[in-house]
Structure formats: C-alpha cells, structure tokens
Hints:
Number of helices: 4
Strand order of the largest sheet: 1-9-8-3-4
Mean pLDDT: 72
CATH architecture of the domain at 20-128: Sandwich
CATH class of the domain at 20-128: Mainly Beta
Domain Ig-like: 15-124
Order of helices and strands: HEEEEEEEEEHHHEE
CATH superfamily of the domain at 20-128: Immunoglobulins
Pfam families: V-set (PF07686)
Number of strands: 11
Strand content: 25-35%
Radius of gyration: 54 Å
Signal peptide: 1-18
Largest sheet: 5 strands, mixed
Helix content: 25-40%
InterPro entries: Ig-like_dom, Ig-like_dom_sf, Ig-like_fold, Ig_sub, Ig_V-set, Immune_rcpt_domain
Organism: Serinus canaria
Amino acid sequence: MEKLLHLTLLFLSAPCAAENVTVVAAMEGDTISVNCSYDPRHWWREKSWCRQLGQGRCRPVASAPPAWLPWPGASRGSTSIRDDARAGLLTVTIRHLRKEDAGLYRCQTDFLGRTRSLRKVQVEVLEAADLGTHVPEEPRAVQSISRSPPDVDFTVFYILAGFLVAKFMVAVLVGAVAHSRKSRERGQKPGLGDRFCLSKVRKRSSQKLLWTVGMLGVNPCGKL
C-alpha cells in the first residue's frame, strides 16, 4: 500500500516538476501572495496574471499598469497586482480565497503579441475537513483544577496595624505633654496658705502697716 501511494505521488508530481509549477496551498478565506521576478531591463513590457484554461489558453485576471504611470499597482476583485520595476518583481495577492479560486495560474509579460511566461503557480484551496485529514490531531492539554486555598495577602493587615500603633503612640505623646503642662501650671499658682497670708491693713489714724493672719489666726508664712 505504501509503495502504491509513493508511485501515485511520483506520477502526480512529475508533470509539475517538468513544467516547473509552484504549488501554493492555503485555507479557504485566507490570503496568499505570489512573487514573479523578471529582468529589470524589460520594465516597459506589459505584465499580467492569468488563469490557465487549456493548452496555450490563459485568461487574464489582473494586469499591472504601465511603468510610466505614477501608481505601480492595480486590483480586480479579490486579486491585486503590483509591479516593482526597479527590482524587477511582480507581486500578485489573492484575498479571501474561495474554492473556485483553485487552479493553475501564470505570471507573464507581453510585447507586440509575444508572450513570455515568468512563473506558473498551482493554487490549492483547503477546507477544514481537508486539513483534518492531512494534519494529525494534536493531543489536548488537560487542565487540572487546584482546590488549595488562595494565598492571603497580609499587606493590608500590616498597614492597618502600623497605623493603629502610630495613632496610639501619638495619643500617648499628646497626653504626656498635656500632663506636663498642667503640672507646670500647678507649680506656678500660689497655695491656699499664700492666698490669705499677710493681709495688709492700713490704719488711718496711726498710718502704720500691720500684718495679720488671713485665715483662722494661723500664720503659715512666718515672720516678715
């Protein structure tokens, strides 16, 4: 069976090798680009992209504008063609590939009815079913669900604890300052004994100063 398949592939690829055909395969809906090189000295010749219909028959699909025009490219439907005369490169782009786009194409130049083929391209449009038959199925990755508890972020707790400690320290400092101020004020105020000490009485008759005790006949101040 393998020998038969190998002989079949050789039989199919032989005509392509003899005619030097480039095979371009892409999925339906994709975009392909084909480059066709030519002699830059032939920049003035007409260049086109055509579809091979039969022996010697090629239906034009898109033609590049003459080299002396300011725009180097042209488009027709989903096919666009661009000519780089300095590099001698003709680029054909087919967008949104469809099944009917599959077939044999050719880049060519033309001058006074003389046509020269630059490159032959076999376009293959693949479907999802076709791709599944050629590409082996890749093993699917099995995702495991972990039930371990999520890591707890203690950053917020650390910030809150630091804020509370700082607030407590500020409150203690304010209380200490207030207590110190009250102690100083109490030390500067006179006592009860000093308030009533040594009342000065002026006697009008003798014009002498007498010192007397203000409260309960007790003299806490001593002699003056």
